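Input protein
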Amino acid sequence: MTPVISATGLWTPDEMISNEELVASFNAWSDKWNAAHAADIDAGTVAPKPHSNVEFIEKASGIKSRYVVNKSGVIDPDIMRPVIAERPNDQISIMAEIAVEAARQALDRAGRRPQEVDAVLCAASNMQRAYPAMAVEIQAALGIEGFAFDMNVACSSATFGIQTAADFVRSGSARSVLMVNPEICSGHLNFTDRDSHFIFGDVATAVLIEAEDVAAPDHWKITGTSLKTVFSNNIRNNFGFLNRTAPEGVGASDKLFVQEGRKVFREVVPMVAAMINSELERLGLVSGDLRRMWLHQANAGMNRLIAAKVLGRDATPDESPTVLDTYANTSSAGSIIAFHKHSDDFVAGDRGLICSFGAGYSAGTVFVEKAA
């Protein structure tokens, strides 16, 4: 059976933080920290915390704002993290809740009832818990039969999830698969680190992958997929159940998101561009056959350079749209947001590429063609 994308869904938090607000909170925290450690700073044994600024953030990333599930905790200099109340086990978890919202939108757009879906994949960079799987909770909340499981390939989770779902369809294991990406990235971000405090935002996306013979006419053929992983420590998060009893402050800096940004840029850009070009050749296509590339929304500079290496010139905003400026980096959901918001103008025969890349290193490509 031929797999297609029937529809997508997007859930966006109500609260948003501008760069100006984020900088003000960071600088207030930095001043408080420097005052508390003044003696050590004067003695030269501790370096003072620098200020952040809007110009630095926009030049480094292209980000201007981000949506978050909790704003008050993030911008409070005494907290500097989202405050999300723990829910009892008899209530739906927040990660499942936002995934369900995105999923229902995708199902509605496809004219599909939950009872017609065979499987649920929850693909995200961080899971709220180890088990029961988030996907199974989402499956239960939607009233879907069949099976469900979680998968984590960091920022590439969505494209890996699409290929996994497509493979289920190709093999006949399922005819309709719901793949969701609930990303509460603010929960693993160190808001006291000047070099990364601005990177992430929160969101949830959903993609419905189905057999072409059961999909609505307005769908996208999946014409080719490819996946790649290369081990690297340059993007890492060491939080896990084995370090839950560590004394306060011991190793805390590596229990949240950390990266060697320059190394990531230098190593990932050529890897992803080469992967896209190789897949174009395998499919018998050239870059000019692509009307649009929906790239992972991690860094504006990375996207510009990857697109240029594929096209042989700078891409126009229409050829490589950006949602990074308003959503920030939303990990696996970024390329799906771009596809969701910038694909309605395609006509039959138009081709495009969904591509994600991130920690691992990992990268995934999904080539699509608008159906007649």
Observations:
- Residues 35 and 316 are 47 Å apart (CA to CA).
- The domain at 221-370 is CATH 3.40.47.10 (Peroxisomal Thiolase; Chain A, domain 1).
- The radius of gyration is 21 Å.
